[in-house]
Amino acid sequence: MNDLINYNEHAYISTRESAKRLNVSLGTIQKMVEMGELTAWKTRGGHRRVLVQSIDDHLKSRHLSYRNQLIRERILFGIFKRTDNILYFEKLLESFKNPVQFASSIDVCEALMRIVELKPHAIFIDCLLPPTEQLHFIHYLSKNEVTQKIPILIDEGFTELHPGVLRLAGENAGIIQTFPRREAAPINPDDTFKHPYIFGYPGSSSDSTPLIQGQDLEEIIQEALMKSPAE
To answer: How many other C-beta atoms are found inside a 10 Å radius of the C-beta of residue 49?
Structure first.
């Protein structure tokens, strides 16, 4: 007998099937129904039926909670132009719905040493850093075996002005095949952020507000943190 039935155009399944889907005991399903975590009803014969949608919603909620917990345990490292920018960025992180662990530096050499030591899950490069410093920093990160596959967050405008940095990072990490200069195809600006370890964020040229605030920034940072292969 099929365990899935239709009632008032909604899909319901038995408590046993519900327990299998959620990987819990029958007793736990009973408690979840009593606490309102799952929507259910009883047949005339006294058999409980659980709304499939409520199970799907619970699974999504469980997955989101697990993902948020992972993000809270992951480390974001930032390299900044000056201390004021660090303080500004820390306030932004505090405003996020799901805060992350954060470490930072205003010195490129110190940052490289700390990154190798900490092995963060993502690296944020301040858009106000001089372009030459950003290029050298990314070059060293992509050359080091410890850091070459750590996701990097870079200002969108920087990658548009210096698209070669994407090929550099990809070649050194073994993601993009190296070709002789004469055979290298031009990089399409539309492909700028298709590199798996480069993430663009909306930067600003203003010293007082170097980042465009909003939910997008938090989503970009979370995506980069979850992309990291580091454990």
So the answer is: 22
Contact at 8 Å (CB) between 201 and 159?
Answer: no
Residue 93 makes CB contacts below 8 A (sequence gap 6+) with 76, 99, 100, 102
Cα angle 117, 147, 125; round to 5: 95
Confidence of residue 68 (pLDDT cuts 50, 70, 90): low
Q: Which amino acid is at 230?
A: A
15-22 vs 26-34: helix axis angle to the nearest 10? 100
Tokens 């548009």 belong to which residue?
A: 160
3-state SS, residue 40? strand
17: nearest Cα among 66, 51, 44: 51
Domains and their CATH numbers in the chain: 4-64 (1.10.1660), 74-227 (3.40.50.2300)
pLDDT at site 186: 43
Distance, CA of 172 to chain centre: 23
For residue 168, give every residue at least 6 positions away whose Cβ sits within 8 Å of its Cβ, in sequence order, or none: 138, 139, 142
